[in-house]
Amino acid sequence: MNTALIIILGIPLIEIYLLIKVGSQIGALNTILLILLTAIVGIWYARYEGFNTLRSGMAQLVKNELPLYEIVSGTAIAFAALLLILPGFATDIIGILLIFPVTRKFILSKYSKKYSKNKSNTGKKNYIEGEYEDIEDKDGK
C-alpha cells in the first residue's frame, strides 16, 4: 500500500483516537482549551525560534558563508508551526519535538547522515577535470 495513503488515513485516525481518550479523562471543554493553548503557545514559540534562526542565518551571510543549517532549520520550524496549528495531540507532539533546538538538531542530524551516506557511496569526484590555454588578443591587450 502506498505510504502517502497510509499517512493521510492514519494521522486523522490517531488524532481522533487521542482526542476521544484525552476528552474522556479531562473533559471535552478542557480538551478543546488544551488544543487551543498548544496552538497559541506553539505559534508564539515558533515565531521566537524563527527570528533566532533568521538572525543566525544573517550572521552566516555576513561572514560570506552559506546558511545551510539555518535554511533547513527554518523549514523545520515552519513545519512544526503548521503541526501545532492542526488540532490534535500527535501532531502537537511532533511539532514540539521539531520546534525545540535540541531535538530539532538531533532529528535533522539523523536525516542528514542518512542522506549524506547515500551521496557519498556514488564514487563521484568533487572536482572537474579540464585543460586551459591563455589566449592573448591580436591587438596586444
Q: How do the helices and strands line up, and which of them pair or pack?
A:
Blueprint: H1 3-26, H2 28-62, H3 68-85, H4 89-99, H5 101-120
Helix pairs in contact: 1-2, 2-3, 2-4, 3-4
Task: Report on the architecture of this protein.
- The protein is mainly α and 141 residues long.
- It has a domain at 36-117.
- It has helices at residues 3-26, 28-62, 68-85, 89-99, 101-120.
- The protein starts with a helix and ends in a 21-residue tail after the last helix.
Helical content stands at over 70%
Number of helices: 5
Report how far apart the termini are: 68 Å
Total strand segments: 0
Main beta-sheet annotation: none
| Mean pLDDT, all residues | 84
**What is the approximate shape?**
elongated
Uncertain residue segments:
none
Derived from helix and strand composition plus strand pairing, the structural class reads mainly alpha
Beta-strand residue fraction: under 5%
Instruction: Spell the H/E element sequence.
Output: HHHHH
Q: State Rg.
A: 24 Å
Compact description:
By secondary structure, the protein is mainly alpha-helical. The protein is 77% helix and 0% strand. The chain is built from five helices and no strands.
Question: What would the keywords be for this entry?
Answer:
141 residues; mainly alpha; 77% helix; elongated
